[in-house]
Amino acid sequence: NAGVTQTPKFQVLKTGQSMTLQCAQDMNHNSMYWYRQDPGMGLRLIYYSASEGTTDKGEVPNGYNVSRLNKREFSLRLESAAPSQTSVYFCASSEADGRYNEQFFGPGTRLTVL
Amino acid sequence: AQSVTQLGSHVSVSEGALVLLRCNYSSSVPPYLFWYVQYPNQGLQLLLKYTSAATLVKGINGFEAEFKKSETSFHLTKPSAHMSDAAEYFCAVSAFSGSARQLTFGSGTQLTVLP
Prior knowledge:
Largest sheet of chain A: 7 strands, mixed
Radius of gyration of chain B: 14 Å
Shape of chain A: globular
Mean pLDDT of chain A: 92
Order of helices and strands of chain A: EEEEEEEEEEE
Helix content of chain B: under 10%
Oligomer: heterodimer
Low-confidence stretches of chain B: none
Shape of chain B: globular
Largest interface: A-B, 29 and 24 residues
């Protein structure tokens, strides 16, 4: 049981380049989330998917797109990377019907945009 | 809207001393509250959660937290710090927004344990 996995672990991009961050979970969870973590700001929600086939914007969606490929996989795409997107990105999953929304996190992707 | 405030972005304690990390919440309904821990270069791991079953919640690694409605607080404590407790700790509140329950995180408290 791997839990939540993310690829790649590290990435360096130049301004304007594009890339996709991959996330997969093997816990049969319905809901999946993408966060970014910046120093002193905690985690901020970028996008989430309450169930397969649905996606919604979170607190900081600008500059990002997502795809819920199937129940297991939820990808985050940067179409034209900017230095302000330098951050650590975390994917998480949870039971959709869980009252408490306990979320399980992946190990993160450290992205640097030059 | 729900929110959490963590008082103190950095806390230092000596090994063996009491750990106290503060979290205050704002919620219009009975909240579901969480503490997560993040070790260096890792993802977040759940320490404990409050789900209204009991006001004193015990978690992993000897941590516990007490829900105090009158003070809107959910402070995290551990009687005796260990070097391995050095990490960043996040308080979070669960709220329904849009099409799903979401977690709103505090800004985090970095715990340093001194030998």
